[in-house]
Amino acid sequence: MNTIYLREQLRQFLNEDIGYGDLSSALIDEEDESVATIVAKEQGIFCGKPIVQELATMQRLELVSCQEDGRSVVPGDELIVLRGKTRVLLETERVLLNLIQHASGIATMTRQCVDALQDDSIHVTDTRKTTPGLRMLEKYAVRVGGGFNHRLRLDDAVMIKDNHIVALGGVADAVYAARARVGHTTPIEVEVESFEQLMEAIQADPDIVMLDNRTPDELREWVQHIPDHITIEVSGGITLDTIADYQGIRIDVISLGQLTHSVRALDCSMNLQGGMKHATTRNTPTDVR
Fold first, then answer.
1. Whole-model pTM?
2. Which of 9, 46, 133, 158 has a CA between 20 and 30 Å from the CA of residue 1?
3. Cα(225)–Cα(195) distance, integer angstroms
4. Catalytic residue of the set 41, 71, 94, 179
């Protein structure tokens, strides 16, 4: 993860939420200190330690403990413990929770899909169906969950889809145009939606062929015609409920928009110990519970 970019994003997120100052937290003595504990409220995969570390540094909070990314958690598990100025803990709370809940939700969904597929020969990947501004974090969460990343941006690879094929006059013409334009280190992928398009794509010899919206039975038939040196990706309509149907098929990649575009956040909450109502615990050791 690019920590420089992460720091810039976190600064923007804090500015968006805090504005010109947290009016509620301003009611608290500025010298008051507390310990904040974030606890899981449901089962899942924790993700977000780099986020926690950067926020703690930026906000001058002591990071007492944090779960490792990829760790399975259950309700009641302690995820993060922070110590610092009570005002700062509270003004940081929402940004921190929003990000780790979202990232953990993606990691959890990814792990569920990988476990449901039960086929190590097939990579489960994300897509570009990500939240604007959060792509780096969301794709990191997919890796934490045991998945792999598709292209990060449009300049990572040539990916010829249906509209490109229409604009360029056909599958083969599109692949040839790409081959003539890009360098040898840039992969070329073409999406096909019919058997006729597949045959045309094979003739043009792309690096990757994506078989879109095909049933498992159709895929078993189609892949027999694809040379071994062409990477086979399948996508379209595959979900957590159906991914197991693709186990054992000679494919290399399953890409799922569901990993990022409609995932549910992992529920967790932050609770303070210390502060004016708990003055006796304000300066206790870091194992405050």
1. 0.91
2. 158
3. 10
4. 94
Identified catalytic residue from 126, 191, 200, 233 = 191
- Secondary structure in 3-state letters for 132-201: CCCHHHHHHHHHHCCCECCCCCCCCCEEECHHHHHHHCCHHHHHHHHHHHCCCCCCEEEEECCHHHHHHH
Per-residue pLDDT tens for 53-109? 999 999 999 999 999 999 999 999 999 999 999 999 999 999 999 999 999 999 999
Residue 231's nearest CA partner among 151, 135, 131 is: 151
Residues 64 and 86 occupy one common structural domain: yes
Is there a domain that residue 286 lies in?
no
Q: CB under 8 Å to 264, separation ≥6 — which residues?
A: 105, 109
Q: Which letter does DSSP use for residue 41 in this model?
A: S
Q: How far is CA 110 from the centre of its chain?
A: 8
Query: What is the residue whose two structure tokens read 């569920």?
Result: 112
Catalytic residue (one of 7, 71, 128, 129): 129
Closest CA to 173 of 201, 215, 146: 201
Q: Is 69 a domain residue? A: yes
The answer to whether 161 is a known catalytic residue is yes
129 counts as catalytic: yes
Q: Which residues constitute the domain of residue 144? A: 120-261
139 included as an active-site residue = no
